[in-house]
Amino acid sequence: AKAAGKNRITLFDHTLRAERLHHAEIAAGLRQALARDELTLNYQPVVDLTTGAIHAVEALLRWTPTDGRPVPPDVFIPVAEDTGLIVDIGRWALERACADAKRWHHRHGIAVTVNVSGRQLRERTFRDTVLEVLTRSQLPRNALTLEVTESMLLATTPDETQRITDVLADLRAHGVRIALDDFGTGYSSLSYLRTLPVDILKIDRSFTAPLTNTDHRQARAFTKAIVELAASLELRTVVEGVESREQAGVLQQMGCPLAQGYLFSPPATATQIDDLLQVTPWQ
Ligand code: C2E
Ligand code: CA
Ligand code: CA
Ligand code: CA
C-alpha cells in the first residue's frame, strides 16, 4: 500500500511538472503572438430562427504559431488570463472585430459579438478602451455585443463585482449590448440574471444535445422555461451548439429567437463571412 502511495505521488508530481512546463511554453509563445501576427479571428453566425438570416457573428480567437500547429482557445485563453496577456490580446480582438464588422453592419445590418474575460473587465481602463475602439472603428455602438460569463465574477470581491456591474451598465447606457454567455452552467445563474445588466442570454450547448432526446424531457423543459423567462424579461435568447435540423425545429417551436451552431456554420474566416452574407438566408 505504501509503495502504491509513493508511486502515485511520483506520478502526480510528474504530470504537475509537465503541466507547468506546458503552461510556461504556451505563455512564452503567446507573448510573441501579437507581434508575429499569429492571432486571427474567426466568426460564427448567430441565426434568426424565424427568417434564417444572419443576425450577428461571434468573434472567436485562433492562434497558429508560425512554427507549429494551431493551439485551441480552451488551451491558450486560460494561460492568457493567468499571465495577463489577455488584456492586450482582448483589445486586439476588439479592434479587429469592430473593423471587420463595420462593412457587415453597413451592408447587412448585422452585429458583432466579442468575448470578454474577467481579467479585462477588472482593468480600470476597460470602459474607455471599448468606447475609444468603437469611435475609431466608426461601428455604431449598438452593433457591438460584449459576451461575459458569470464565472468571471467568481474571484471578485463584492466591491469589485459592483464596479464591474457599473462598468457594464455604463457601456450599456452608451448603446453597447451585453450577453451572458454559457448560461446554465454556473451555480447561481438566476441571481446574476437579476443583478447583471444584460440584453441577451446564451444558453450553453450542453443543453442542446438532449433537446431531441425523448429520455431528456427535463432538459427540454428547462430550455423552454429559460426561453420564456428571458422573453418576459425582454431579453433575447441564443441557443448554442445547434447541430441538427431537429434541434433547430424544437427551438423554433419553443419560440427561441436565435441560434448558433455547426448546422448553420462553423466559425469561419472574415472572407468566408463576406461570401456567406451573399447567399443567406438558409431554409
Ligand atoms: P464560447 O464563447 O462558448 O464559444 C463557443 C464555442 O463553441 C466555440 O469554441 C465554437 O467553435 C464552439 N461551437 C460552435 N458551434 C458548435 C456546435 O455546433 N457544436 C460544438 N460542439 N461546438 C460548437 P472555440 O472557438 O474553440 O472557443 C472556445 C472558448 O474560448 C469560447 O467559448 C470562449 O470562452 C473562448 N474564447 C474564444 N475567443 C475568445 C476571445 O476572443 N476572448 C476570450 N476572452 N475568450 C475567447
Ligand atoms: Ca461566447
Ligand atoms: Ca458559450
Ligand atoms: Ca465558454
From TrEMBL:
Domain EAL, residue spans: 23-281
Q: What is this protein called?
A: Diguanylate cyclase (GGDEF)-like protein
- Residue ranges annotated as coiled coil are none
